[in-house]
Amino acid sequence: MAYELRREDLEPLLLGAAFFGSGGGGTIESARHLAAHFIAGDYYPADTVKVVSVDEATEGAAVMVAYLGAPEAINSALYPLGPVTAVQNVQTRLASQSTRLAYVMPPESGALGFTVAALVAAKLGLAVIDADGAGRAVPSLPMLTFAAAEIDPRPAFLVSQGGLCSEPGELVSAEVDTSGGFDVGKPIRTNQLIHGLKLDNWSNSSNFGGTRGRNCPTLPIDLAVVPRPHGYLNLARSLLLSIR
User: Fold this and answer.
1) Number of CB atoms found within 10 A of residue 8's CB
2) Per residue in 207-242, pLDDT tens?
3) C-alpha dihedral (123, 79, 50, 89), degrees to nearest 10
4) How far apart, in whole angstroms, are the C-alpha atoms of residue 18 and residue 16?
5) Which of 150, 148, 146, 129 lies closest to 62, judged by CA?
6) Per-residue pLDDT at 102
7) Are strands 48-52 and 3-6 parallel, antiparallel or unpaired?
8) Which of 8, 19, 101, 173 is such that its CA lies 20 to 30 A from the CA of 205?
9) Separation CA 110–CA 199 (nearest Å)
């Protein structure tokens, strides 16, 4: 069922996503830094974002957006400029092919990935799909379920926070400073989604993150390991009960 995320919902979302990311997927500090500037005004047209299930994602294509880079560099950015530019490039390419971009999704579970996907969607007036391509964090993009489902990764764009944009397959000058990291955007047809996603991870993360904030402020989520992408809520409840 579709629902709206508000600014105050990002904190439980990123906490739950950090837990389910099993220690990866970007730092809580980076996610909080970007979320703190999620305010309707000059940059964001609204401070809410729509979240839909895979079954409800029927109005166009979806794009996977990943934020890559050192936490120190990411923490110096007020807004996810690179990810937004990457998605805008995909949006333009799809429009030239008479295809509408309607949805954003993160590659994996993680505090930064979920937060950035929500912020990019809010900036561009898109919706977020309640799913990702791993059910946890992974070290590299070929380990995602998108690759396992053999979903074509093209077109894809690499965009630096400073504005450098390249489409994979083209040469990038070795003299360009990419210390700020790159952002990846790749489109996915919605009829492929059911084969390449771990479902309901946003809902699970938000629910668990909110529970963790109310009842278990000392849960050491940085050290938690979740070996399977299923049964998250049962595992979370078990951990809460054992600590309480």
Assistant:
1) 10
2) 666 654 444 333 333 323 333 333 334 344 444 444
3) 50
4) 5
5) 129
6) 96
7) antiparallel
8) 101
9) 14
pLDDT tens-digit series, residues 140-192: 888 888 888 888 878 888 888 777 888 876 544 434 443 444 455 555 544 44
Task: Please say if the pLDDT value at position 84 is more than 80.
Answer: yes
According to DSSP, residue 132 is labeled E
3-class secondary-structure state, position 3: strand
Q: Which residue has the tokens 């590299």?
A: 140
* DSSP conformation class of 168: B
Distance CA 61, CA 148 (A): 19
Q: Which H/E stretch holds residue 214?
A: helix 201-215
Tell me the C-alpha distance between 87 and 76, whole Å: 21
What is the layout of strands, in order, in the sheet containing 61-67? 3-6, 48-52, 127-129, 101-105, 61-67, 182-188, 157-160, 165-166
Q: What is the DSSP string of 62-95?
A: EEEEEE-S-HHHHTT-SS-HHHHHHHHHHHHHHH
> Beta strand 157-160 with 182-188: parallel, antiparallel or unpaired?
antiparallel
The residue among 194 and 8 whose pLDDT is bigger is 8
The Cα 133–Cα 26 span in angstroms is: 15
Q: C-alpha 8: how far from its chain's center?
A: 17
